[in-house]
Amino acid sequence: MNIPKSHPRYLSLQTREKLVNGFVNNLVAKEGLLAHGRGEAFDYLIGEKTTKSAKNAIKAAAYMLNQAQNSVISVNGNFAALCPKEIIQLAKTTNSKIEVNLFYSSEKRKKAISKILKKSGAKQVLGMDKKQSAKLKGIDSARRIVDKNGIFSADVVLVPLEDGDRTIALKKAKKKVITFDLNPLSRTAQTADVTIVDNVTRSMKLLVSESKKSGRKVTFDNKKNLKSSILEIRKNLERRAKNA
Ligand code: PTJ
């Protein structure tokens, strides 16, 4: 790559490579590559940087995770390929469990994801033992199969790069939901309690650092914050149009 490391495009190209390697190594579903393409387009719209509204959401997410009794980080293929180390760090700092939960589920992918998480330092990965499984109501996809000791009994669940159905089902099951979604208008983004409109590759690092701080109570309104995200996109586009 002939782009300086400090340039946002460098991170973006590096991320693309991680996804492609993740696909080759059975972590990422082919549909995960399409999801990433959608993410890249939205990342361009937000200016490929962590916005003020995303920073607000990160503070609220750290507070929520630190206050939880039984928090779970749900891991899919894209998340495992992009930030395995940060998943483990966040689990440690917030005392959260880690569970593999896939939309395009297969034993082969689940094993590959669990393996990379363990290689990155995870002591326990839930979602692998069929004897421990339970069903979440209101979901048709494989994502309904969850771990009894994990997502099923959690009070706070972090769901990255989601499809909307599970977030709605988790909310119906009275759980607090935190998500990363570059699209502020997606059903997941609109349904979650805390939506971090940012690229997981940038904001997971920030969430880990934020969760290490003792953290005063955060007042946070997700709908209001999402409106700010949309306004930030508009301002970024207007600025670019002026300079075009
Ligand atoms: O690994 P699996 O089988 O569980 O499948 C995972 C995917 C991602 C394929 C599945 O959950 C899916 O199809 O998701 P969607 O419905 O495409 O939603 C993905 C959302 O994440 C979209 O709104 C994208 O804009 C957003 N997104 C993509 N890449 C990133 C992202 N958000 C934050 N950071 C990213 N790097």
Automatic annotation (TrEMBL):
The keyword Nucleotide-binding applies. Transmembrane segments: none annotated. Keywords: ATP-binding, Coenzyme A biosynthesis, Ligase, Nucleotide-binding. ATP binds at residues 16, 38, 181-183, 187-188, 199-200. Its EC number is 6.3.2.36. It is an enzyme of class 6 (ligase). Pathway: Cofactor biosynthesis; coenzyme A biosynthesis. It comes from the Archaea. The keyword ATP-binding applies. One of its GO terms (molecular function) is acid-amino acid ligase activity. It catalyses: (R)-4-phosphopantoate + beta-alanine + ATP = (R)-4'-phosphopantothenate + AMP + diphosphate + H(+). GO terms for biological process: coenzyme A biosynthetic process. Belongs to the archaeal phosphopantothenate synthetase family. Homodimer. Catalyzes the condensation of (R)-4-phosphopantoate and beta-alanine to 4'-phosphopantothenate in the CoA biosynthesis pathway. NCBIfam families: PRK13761.1. This is 4-phosphopantoate--beta-alanine ligase.
